Amino acid sequence: MLNIDIKDLLLKVAHDNDLASFKKIYFLYYERLLKLACSFVRLTEVGEEIVDDVFVKIWSNRAKLTEVDNLTVYLYVAVKNRAINYNLTNRITCVDIESVSFELKDMSGSVEDVLITDELAKIINYTIQRLPDECKIVFKLVKEDSLKYRKVAEILNISVKTVEYHMNNALKRIAAAISASPDHHKRTIKKASSN
After folding, report:
1. Is residue 155 part of a domain?
2. Residue 38 forms part of a structural domain
3. How remote is the C-alpha of 23 from its chain's centroid?
4. Between 20 and 30 A from 105 (CA), which of 6, 15, 121, 128?
5. Which residue segment(s) compose the domain that 15 sits in?
6. Based on the domain organization, do 73 and 132 belong to the same domain?
7. Is 82 within 8 Å of 53 (Cβ atoms)?
8. Is the pTM of this model over 0.70?
């Protein structure tokens, strides 16, 4: 992860109370954890508080950090659990994950390519927004956070097969939406003529 050995940072935090190493861990994970928290709770401020609470708890219990085998899974599970507890405490039963979006990068090319890519991104985002909640979370963790299926399964406390099912479901829906789009034939013709 960005050429930084997380285990070394954890050891420095646990054994030497190294605040600089703790800050590195914080900044490495903060944005992704915030996105995860906000996918469970509706308010960014609440998501920020959840993530900060998790890091405060980690700092308070830093001597035990050497027992953590996989920091990424540990942090994601901690944030997920705090967010769920927040929702339960505040009687929020509907998880709003409308902020999840999928970005297509590398928009270099002709104006037509850019317009087609922009339209494609809109179709993909629209489809992702309409996925069932758990499917949407799985898709976000795999595609946006680049987590392996096994890690996603650990974080969400589901089987790897369930993660595979949700990813297949999401990808099938996205493919169907793209195929059903009015401009699909233009992309297919353009691709064929490029070869």
Report:
1. yes
2. yes
3. 21
4. 6
5. 6-89
6. no
7. yes
8. no
Q: How far apart are CA 117 and CA 177, in angstroms?
A: 14
Chain position carrying tokens 């994950």: 97
Q: At what angle do helices 6-16 and 71-89 cross, to 10 degrees?
A: 70
pLDDT of res. 115: 54
Of 4-13, 100-109, 127-136, the least confident: 100-109
Asked if 86 and 39 count as a contact pair (C-beta separation under 8 A), the reply is no
**Percent of the residues in the chain that have a pLDDT greater than 90, as a whole number:** 30
**Is 167 a domain residue?**
yes
The answer on 181 and 123 residing in a single domain is yes
- What CATH number corresponds to the domain at position 187? 1.10.10.10
Residue with the two structure tokens 């994601």: 76
Identify whether the C-beta of residue 64 lies closer than 8 Å to the C-beta of residue 13: no
Q: Which long-range contacts (CB under 8 A, 24 or more apart) does 166-172 make?
A: 166/134, 166/135, 166/138, 166/139, 167/138, 167/139, 167/142, 169/131, 169/132, 169/135, 170/128, 170/131, 170/135, 170/136, 170/138, 170/139
Distance of CA 142 to the CA centre of its chain: 7
Please report, for the domain that includes residue 37, its CATH number: 1.10.1740.10
